[in-house]
Amino acid sequence: MSQPLIPPFGAPVHLRDYDPDYLDGSSKKDAKKDLKKKLAAAMEADQQRLDMLQEALYAEGKHALLIVLQGMDTSGKDGTIRHVFSSVDPQGVQVTSFKVPTADELARDFLWRIHRAVPPKGMIGIFNRSQYEDVLVVRVHNLVPESIWRERYDHINRFEEMLHEHGTTILKFFLHISKAEQKKRLTERRDTPEKQWKFSLGDLKERAYWEDYQAAYEAVLTHCNTPYAPWHIVPANSKWYRNYIIARTVREALERLNPQFPTPEKGIESVEILD
Ligand code: AMP
Ligand code: MG
User: Fold this and answer.
1) Percent of the chain, pLDDT > 70?
2) Hey, whose CA ends up nearest to atom 5 of ligand 1?
3) Does residue 274 form part of some domain?
4) How many domains does the structure of the chain reveal?
5) Atom in ligand 1 nearest the alpha carbon of residue 198
6) Region at 261 (left for phi over 0; alpha for psi -120 to 50; beta for the rest)
7) Which residue has its alpha carbon closest to ligand 1 atom 15?
8) What is the pLDDT of residues 218-264, one digit of tens each?
9) How many angstroms is it from 198 CA to the middle of ligand 2?
10) How does pLDDT run across 163-211, given as a tens digit for each residue?
11) Which positions ≥6 away from 230 have C-beta within 8 Å?
12) Does residue 27 register a pLDDT over 60?
């Protein structure tokens, strides 16, 4: 059965309808190996193209691309950034990781720190967590009253629409993993010396709220999935499939923008370059 990457706009999203193990084509063991090889080649081609498209985006300087990454702990936000964008010129990409808000940030509206981090024209901006934390962790733990967080879906939609109208293409990715896959990854973190720094007891506490987070994500995917800033539900139990899907989606979005290198100044062909 095939499963949409972007859920239908305006319809309620139920995550149980989206399989985190989903792969294009057959999931039989042999087919999976073949698929992995095929997609690795496709991804390499996408990454090379991404590098070229990014350069043209920068040279043209008319549009910005904003990529939002959200997902449960261990869902692969950091891994996506490292693997998908490894081929792109670091000067053309700015990554912002949103943590627990500082006192300074809490003294402003929740979009203040977000707006400051939006990429300028010509740049690709990547958000590792985002404005959505203010309707996810905040909602799950009642960090503000419901009357406040309820309003935020609408605030976020209007904010994203404004960015879109001012030349920012927005792509949002929910990295969808299963609870069993998270257990596997947390166990690996606990048991691998190079990964232990990432293991926090806080993550275990959050894991206990798994169902509440799934419900909070369903609300986000239902209320804030718009044609101008669509959500992609990425099957993310398999890291290579996740990377392939995101590289392809970003590459396709840049192809649609079709950035052009500016025409050179008149007559430069005949300018003499003095010794
Ligand atoms: P990490 O991404 O693992 O570095 O963790 C960042 C932490 O910051 C996560 O536990 C997030 O839930 C938390 N965080 C990010 N944004 C907010 C926010 N607006 N309110 C409260 N906690 C947040
Ligand atoms: Mg973490």
Assistant:
1) 97
2) 99
3) no
4) 1
5) 3
6) beta
7) 99
8) 999 999 999 999 999 999 999 999 999 999 999 999 999 999 999 99
9) 6
10) 999 999 999 999 999 999 999 999 999 999 999 999 999 999 999 999 9
11) 6, 9, 170, 171, 172
12) no
Owner of token pair 């990014």: 54
CA distance 115 to 97: 13
Domain assignment present for residue 173? The answer is yes
Residues whose CB falls within 8 Å of the CB of residue 152, separated by 6 or more in sequence, listed in order? 110, 131, 134, 135
CA 141 to ligand 1 center in whole angstroms: 12
Q: Please list every protein residue whose CB sits less than 6 Å from any atom of ligand 1.
A: 98-101, 129, 133-134, 137-138
d(CA 254, CA 247): 11
Which token pair is 98?
Answer: 């949103």
CB–CB of 24/35 below 8 Å?
yes
Range 54-70 average pLDDT: 98
Q: What domain range includes position 207? A: 15-259
CATH of the domain at 34: 3.40.50.300
Q: Give a yes or no: residue 10 inside a domain.
A: no
Task: Compute the distance from residue 133 Cα to the ligand 1 centre, in Å.
Answer: 7
In a domain, 5, yes or no: no
Closest CA to 143 of 216, 69, 231: 216
